[in-house]
Design goal:
The chain is mainly α. It is built from 23 helices and 4 strands. The chain has helices spanning 9-12, 14-27, 37-48, 51-57, 68-81, 85-111, 114-124, 131-135, 140-161, 168-184, 191-201, 211-232, 237-240, 250-264, 273-290, 293-310, 321-340, 346-372, 376-393, 416-424, 435-438, 444-447, 467-471; strands at residues 402-405, 431-434, 452-457, 460-463.
């Protein structure tokens, strides 16, 4: 059975359109959000890294490599549009919408039901605590990885399920998607294992494996293994980041499951240990109740892709964006088995349950949206203030300018000013010297080496014309920075 059927198309395709509209209704205001500090860091890293080295990072990363596919996307957007905000937000929403449709296609393949696919899309379409994805262009890594992951798995399942020969062209397509997913985010390293689970789940149902059909699987496994070895052969930025240090203790894993579980269920708190046990028991009961190979596969994929997240320091819910797809498909399969096969035909239950899901979840989404968005204004205002104030106070600067900032409200170890101003003036050699990092007032000799000197009063930028003013001295030198 195909996803598209001529007789059913006019009314069936109303479902995806309604779900896309539902998604845009709740998340569409994300098109108007500004730049965030992490975006400046990501773009700066992508622009300053040589393009040949970025391309080589796709297959053999060195010690400073970091998610080259995302870096190429940032680099392309910046070189084409600079710091014009709209293209970044449009790109994010195109990926979000595309991922929603890809999730529907994969759900259709895994569930065997068009309506179950729509129910999975309805569940996946919006979650208030996934706000990082809807409002920040810094999550481009996650969006790209999800796109390549879903396309990779859906194409493989589609070709194997139809008995198609996965010839050289299709194999190259799969390997390209695999490398792209790995290069977008490290979660892509698990995709070859996902294919093994597919083969185990559908053994005897898909066309019998042959040497020719197993060549693509073997090449994907070999590519994944090579990517793992390449990344562990050097100490990359990712591997040396304390935020990504792996901890295999049971306490950390359980605490992270409680943390993400609480957000998933809109509790605005962690699950208690007993609640976590109840959730686990409910999952087991549902699997026994529906007795579905597809449901077991989806739940297994959910936990497999969740595994890297629960062994590192906890963060926002957006990090389980890709595993969340398979949780939604699992729930859709359960609903399909419990309702359509036991109570009434799918053609009747399908639209009724779709409307029930959308209308039933809408109040929860609306209630929790302010909680999920609480972080946005503070982070957004920092970059917005820096850009607007420097555009006003210094529309242009000489090449390789040295700027002195006497005071600001940015943490000492944060290089937000440097990242943002280098991108604003398109000058990788621009230098920002902050008194917070100098730990002293500049000497006469240092002062004369600065192109401009500024002070932030809150987020209001004021130019400083003398060292006396900067150092708070009542008398002394009054030389101004060179221009």
């Amino acid at each position: 059975m195909q996803w598209f059927h001529v007789r059913r198309a006019p009314w069936f395709w109303a479902g995806p359109l309604i779900i896309l509209g539902y998604f845009l209704y709740f998340a569409g205001d994300g098109l108007n959000t500004g730049f965030f500090p992490d975006v400046m860091m990501n773009i700066s890293g992508a622009v300053e890294r040589p393009l040949p080295r970025l391309l080589l990072d796709l297959v053999y990363p060195d010690e400073s490599a970091y998610r080259p596919v995302g870096a190429l996307a940032y680099r392309g957007l910046y070189q084409a549009f600079g710091l014009t905000l709209a293209p970044y937000r449009i790109a994010s929403f195109l990926l979000l919408s595309g991922n929603l449709l890809l999730a529907g296609w994969l759900a259709r393949l895994l569930s065997g039901s068009r309506w179950a696919a729509l129910w999975a899309m309805a569940l996946f379409s919006y979650h208030a605590y996934l706000s990082d994805l809807y409002y920040s262009s810094a999550t481009l890594y996650d969006l790209l990885c999800c796109s390549f992951t879903l396309a990779f798995l859906a194409l493989y399942a589609h070709w194997r399920g139809r008995g198609c020969v996965i010839g050289p062209g299709r194999t190259i397509a799969l390997l390209s998607l695999l490398l792209a997913a790995i290069g977008a985010k490290e979660l892509g390293l698990l995709l070859p294992l996902c294919l093994v689970l597919f083969e185990l789940a559908y053994f005897g149902l898909w066309p019998r494996p042959s040497l020719r059909s197993m060549i693509p699987l073997g090449l994907c496994l070999l590519t994944g293994l090579s990517a793992v070895l390449a990344r562990f052969a050097v100490t990359t930025k990712f591997g040396s980041n304390p935020a990504y240090q792996v901890g295999l203790s049971a306490d950390r894993i359980i605490a992270n499951l409680q943390h993400y579980g609480g957000m998933l269920f809109y509790l605005h708190r962690d699950l208690t240990p007993m609640e976590l046990i109840y959730v686990a028991l409910a999952a087991v009961v549902l699997m026994v109740l529906v007795y579905s190979r597809n449901a077991v596969l989806c739940l297994t994929l959910f936990f497999l892709l969740l595994a890297p997240v629960v062994v590192i320091e906890p963060r926002s819910l957006y990090v389980i964006y890709i595993p969340y797809v398979f949780l939604c498909v699992f729930l859709a399969i359960v609903l399909h088995r419990v309702t359509c096969l036991r109570f009434c035909p799918e053609t009747i239950m399908g639209p009724l349950l779709l409307l029930a899901l959308l209308s039933g979840l809408a109040p929860l989404h609306a209630y929790r949206k302010p909680f999920g968005n609480a972080w946005i204004r503070n982070d957004e205002s920092q970059v917005d203030s820096i850009l607007s104030e420097f555009r006003r106070a210094a529309p242009a600067l000489p090449h390789a300018a040295r700027l002195y900032v006497n005071s600001d409200s940015i943490p000492e170890d944060d290089y937000l000013l440097t990242f943002t101003l280098r991108l604003l003036y398109r000058d990788r050699y621009l230098e920002v010297v902050r008194r917070k990092q100098l730990h002293h007032c500049p000497s006469e000799e240092e002062w004369t080496g600065y192109t401009r000197a500024y002070d932030f009063d809150g987020w209001k930028l004021k130019e400083i014309r003398s060292r006396t003013t900067a150092c708070g001295e009542s008398a002394g030198a009054t030389s101004t920075p060179a221009r």
